[in-house]
Amino acid sequence: MTQRSPKVTAERNRTLDLASALVRGxxxxxxxxxxxxxxxxxxxxxxxxxxxxxxxxxxxxxxxxLLAHGAGLVRPDTLxxxxxxxxxxxxxxxxxxxxxxxxxxxDAAEQEEGRPRPSQAGAFCAxxxxxLLVVAGAxxYARGGSLRADPDTLVFPVALVVAGAxxxxxxxxxxxxxxxxxxxxxxALQEAFARTLFRNxxxxxxxxxxxxxxxxxxxxxxxxxxxLGRNAAVAQNDFLALAGDWSGRFxxxxxxxxxxxxxxxxxxxxxxxPGFSLGTEATVTPLGLDGTPAVPHFPLLxxxxxxxPGTLLNGAALAVPVAAALAVAWFTVRRAA
Length: 337
Prior knowledge:
The protein is α+β, with helices and mostly antiparallel strands and 337 residues long. 64% of the residues lie in helices and 6% in strands.
């Protein structure tokens, strides 16, 4: 009478798997929040003239962590008294939360020795729920700080980013399947899908597209590096003018490093032709800088071309999309051959 039936044991294992996945999601969020909090606290402790106490630094760290997920932040303490939004997401900070969520979902959905494979949908929902619980707590804690999260952005894009990373982790644990169609689909559609060799062709297209994007971003980063090299003196003056002590310069250096992927993206957009906007009144393209930019003195912005029409050297940036197109064509033709 005391022996458990197989059905009860299976239900108990399923509950334990869901609870474990929930904890994995919360731990992944805690690791990302904790690592960023340590970095912010080091900068705060080393600052000779901190503007707030440790509570303010912790709330700022929570706000920056939410910003890494794409949340829109609002800075209420401004000189004009009007709250100002913080809409730019440092792309380098996004890598940490996405990787941690992906790894947590992958580990939760992987089959352990001696136990059946857990439900993929259950692992996905549990990891996402555990992570979002920490997100909600961080948003509530940051409300009284200098960087407050916009509640509307916690659903989109924060929840979407977390769910996407968790789904990618579950997909990786399943062996990255790409077809065939599920069994509930019509048989004629399954046969047509198998005859078109969709899996091989889609894999070739995805690899070629990934190579093209990599070349495009690499070319954008090269454009930014060349422009910074030409204006190295301006970048150095801006860097030294932003902070007079070593802790402030260290913080500026960290911010510049976090914005390097953003700069590469701007460089890729510049090479493609549409360019990018500086504020609301200026646009930078290879044809020239149109308008009067109202931007702060920041080292990375020293790469922005001077006002006026573009020169032949600016037009050389159009070689970036050409190189990306050649890379896509090479990999596609090589696969086809």
